[in-house]
Specification:
Layout: H1 17-30, H2 43-50, H3 54-66, E1 70-73, E2 77-80, H4 99-123, H5 126-141, H6 146-163, H7 167-176, H8 185-191, H9 196-215, H10 219-248
Antiparallel strand pairs: 1-2
Protein name: FadR/GntR family transcriptional regulator
Length: 249
């Protein structure tokens, strides 16, 4: 006799198994089976329940982190952050397909995240600063894996929004999701005609400057560092866009 409470097994032939697992876990969060503050089952338990590998589980958790639905506390486990809103505003990553689209997203981020960094510097707690540090360390460790880097990059910026203490900053960042981060660092480096390692080192320095200013609780420096970071990204890609347009002309 089947157990009616057993977790649904994942279909094997549609989207990636990781995305299927994201869908199942998101539905459990949305339906209230997993509530805010609840700890997710262990990796092994999820593997057994859904018949997937550890790699699939980790990729799914990474995507849920990037979407702001869960957070991982090192040495403790992964916890539900909030229930996703199916009707909320969200930029579909599928619509961010051209350099012009990416530039438009960066303009939006500059208007939002410069002030977010300033408020975070004023209001952050030691615990929130530690979470920013953890996200930044994860980003520095995952530079060779594009998908992991995207998730860690987004987590760093999301933690800054959370530290503002203003839930609307967090809501907007969560709804924007990882579409605000270039999908692969390799493509971004190539478009900017930059060496991959040099590109990542520069991004790391820019992130560290943002973090250091927030750690010092220097609001003006935090705003300036965030503006410089996002403006640099915009200018690198704007030049690439202009070159691409000239070549087509």
């Amino acid at each position: 006799m089947e157990n009616p409470n057993a977790a649904p097994r994942l279909p094997r032939k549609r989207r990636s198994l990781a995305q299927e697992l994201v869908t199942v876990l998101s539905e459990q969060i949305r339906d209230g089976h997993l509530k805010r503050g609840d700890k997710l089952p262990t990796e092994s338990a999820i593997m057994d329940a859904h018949g997937v590998s550890r790699t699939v589980v980790r990729e799914a958790i990474s995507r849920l982190q990037a979407a702001g639905q869960v957070e991982t506390r090192h040495g403790i486990g992964t916890f539900v952050l909030d229930t996703p809103s199916p009707s909320g505003f969200r930029i579909d990553p599928a619509t961010v397909v051209t350099l012009r689209d990416v530039l438009a997203i960066l303009e939006l981020r500059i208007s939002l995240e410069v002030e977010s960094a300033g408020l975070a510097a004023q209001r952050r707690s030691p615990e929130q600063l530690a979470l920013m540090r953890a996200a930044l360390d994860a980003l520095n460790e995952s530079v060779s894996h594009a998908s992991d880097a995207v998730a860690s990059d987004f987590q760093f910026h999301l933690q800054i929004a959370l530290a503002t203490g203003n839930r609307y900053f967090t809501d907007i960042m969560t709804h924007l999701g990882t579409s605000i981060i270039p999908r692969t660092r390799l493509n971004s480096a190539r478009l900017a005609h930059d060496d991959q390692q040099h590109y990542m080192n520069r991004l790391s320095r820019e992130h560290e400057e943002i973090y250091d200013a927030i750690a010092r609780q220097d609001s003006d420096a935090a705003r300036a560092a965030m503006r410089l970071h996002l403006t640099n990204s915009r200018e690198r890609l704007r030049h690439a866009h202009e070159e691409a347009e000239a070549q087509r002309g």
